[in-house]
Amino acid sequence: SLDSTCKIVADLNLTRDVYIAGKGNFYILPGVRFHCPILGCSITLNISGNFSLGENSTIVAGTFELAAYNASFFNGSANPSSYGSKGGSTSKEVDYGGGGGGRVRMDIKEFLDVNGSLLAEGGDGGSKGGGGSGGSVYIKAHKIRTGGGRISASGGNGFAGGGGGRVAVDVFSRHDEPTIYVHGGISRGCSKNAGAAGTLYDAVPRSLNVNNYNLSTDTETLLLEFPYQPLWTNVYIRNCARASVPLLWSRVQVQGQISLLCGGVLSFGLAHYATSEFELLAEELLMSDSIIKVYGALRMTVKIFLMWNSKMLIDGGEDSTVATSWLEASNLVVLKESSVIQSNANLGVHGQGLLNLSGSGDKIQAQRLVLSLFYSIHVGPGSVLRGPLEDASSYAITPKLYCELQDCPIELLHPPEDCNVNSSLSFTLQICRVEDITVEGLIKGSVVHFHRARTISVQSSGIISASGMGCIGGVGKGNFLDNGIGSGGGHGGKGGLGCYNSSCVGGGNSYGNSKLPCELGSGSGNESSADSIAGGGIIVMGSVEHPLSSLSVEGSVRADGEGFAETVWQYKNFLSNVSSIAPGGGSGGTVLLFLHTMTLGESAILSSVGGYGSPKGGGGGGGGRIHFHWSNIPTGDVYQPIARVKGSIYARGGLGRDESGSGENGTVTGKACPKGLYGTFCVECPVGTYKNVSGSDSSLCQPCPAWELPHRAIYIAVRGGIAETPCPYKCISDRYHMPNCYTALEELIYTFGGPWLFCLLLVGLLILLALVLSVARMKFVGVDELPGPAPTQHGSQIDHSFPFLESLNEVMYWKRTELRNHRVMCTECILWVLILSVNLGICPTRLQKK
């Protein structure tokens, strides 16, 4: 029993099996050999403390088992000084195994010229023995020239190839790059599994190379420790080399670049114990035709992450404590040529620059996926963002959907601001705090949420989908009979009847709030059966506090219910199986949009439709719900259209088959519009109507009062609609004047009380004028027309000394002349009045007609 600290300070040769257990520590000091050179000898350490194997120390045994709290093995990559190991044999009688490589160490103060070979290679095992592993080569010099020389610590060939050794080079000045080999040996028994690559450490740039020279292998090169002082600058894993960091916790940190090229593979943790946590820190992570495998959780922090035909596969296992991985690339993330990032648990990818999935086959997917803090995300044609996985394994961590709840999860309307991966939230795919999102590929999830985004543009090839990603059961689950006939699931509308051979079952109930929907669609069929059908999921863009600035759609945004033809019928010979169930279609899900403005192009589709029922009698699924929750709707003089809709918006029910009924239509609603605006998209009320209350129904736009519209006027449109009476109008011609659309004379007439009063006043004025003219004519004009005195006849007896005495004939003559002049003047006045009345249109009769 070991309860304190035990240090092995000198060589120790054991002659039998050893088992050491206790709570203490066990240290083997540098340069010490701890050997049990007997065949089959076993050394077992089971301690609660720490274990350390010092520099140049060795443990030799048939079996070595270690259980400890911490274990430290001296890093032999930078300063190798160990021998290679001997290869195995296919025979117990004859040892065919190749010998291990030796050690070469050179410390040159000035110049090293290598024209020959420096070899520490493993021996060849032939066809019956394994190749020996490579040894070690250490070279230190001020200058080196290799010429045609060769430096190698490669593994030996054999029935199974030996592993490569270790080479370290510390040379300041080089005339040429030396040719150095540390690859594994060729396996004659299995050509695709050569020996694992060794390591080449270049001390001047502090770079580690793991290169298997395109020899395919399934065997890994162990990297047990990465130094912190000083940090390595670069790590290269290339040409079919496979490197592994098989620790419970490890931190891989370099100052520069980690590159995996040409079939290189880097793995963290153990495949059957996915409980490890790893940190990877570098300036750049470059992957080309390569793979990174993580068994556990990964915390990656880089500035640039580039992938070309490569994969990063994260296996989170079943341990919820290590179920979340974070990938942070502050400047740039680019996936090209069918590159994949995948996790069967929770995955967060965030940065401050651009995330670009370039084209076909590029994919980021996880059971729960969060993309955050990028200024721009571009999902190229044929690329995919998905959460959860399409074909998740049975042990994958599956997000729990709130299928049986009718209450809206608070995070859908008021999501948290931190954008962290939180398994307690309902989101399966969230894009958070991203300025601009361009979709030319596919974004798909059960609960898809775009939070604190500025603009989203869905191009003609782009799809944002939650179709068939909702509940198999759910609040509006379709019912089914014992014979397997199922009705459609309900949501925004009731599910269709499921009927077969006169047996019918009612459809699923409708549920949810059309004014602010947030429910998953419901399915149909038996949940325990593979034939069950799922409803549509949820797509939420924006939130109450942070609405989307603009949404532009040329492609499609869908949350449709799953149809039977889309699942079972395509993959199974359903019609040949008489006992198969016949489920109905799933109901449509929810599309909830918090936004300022929206544009739907001619080819755009926005839908939440129910799925088709099965051919044997399944009912159609009910339509889902689509809601536009507009923010800060402009009104009055600053009004401008908030939606330009040329595409299609569907929330219809799915079709039933044969005797079965179709699902009821769902709902398409908008936020209550302010005064003057109506409809789903808050457009201006039609000309001639006004709306003085809030709401969206078209019946709220009431006709303007007819008595307020002048005879010669028409109603006109006003920016922002008409909120109050009187409704604005304009005259039909410029010859009429506002507000009553009168001519100038009519305005004068109505100024004096109307046509009748004006005519009476005018007649009175004319009569008065006639009288004045008459008096003036009598006084001024009549005197000029009187006849002069009659000439005096000779011989007359009249006395002319009395001039005022005239004859009766002269008096009568004067009266007749005056009367005739009065008649002429009155006749002229009457004619003038009539002409004026006719020409100017002021006749009362005509005014009444007008």
Automatic annotation (TrEMBL):
<protein>
    <recommendedName>
        <fullName>DUF8003 domain-containing protein</fullName>
    </recommendedName>
</protein>
<dbReference type="InterPro" id="IPR058316">
    <property type="entry name" value="DUF8003"/>
</dbReference>
<feature type="domain" description="DUF8003">
    <location>
        <begin position="668"/>
        <end position="742"/>
    </location>
</feature>
<feature type="transmembrane region" description="Helical">
    <location>
        <begin position="748"/>
        <end position="773"/>
    </location>
</feature>
<keyword id="KW-1133">Transmembrane helix</keyword>
<dbReference type="InterPro" id="IPR009030">
    <property type="entry name" value="Growth_fac_rcpt_cys_sf"/>
</dbReference>
<keyword id="KW-0812">Transmembrane</keyword>
<dbReference type="Pfam" id="PF26010">
    <property type="entry name" value="DUF8003"/>
</dbReference>
<keyword id="KW-0472">Membrane</keyword>
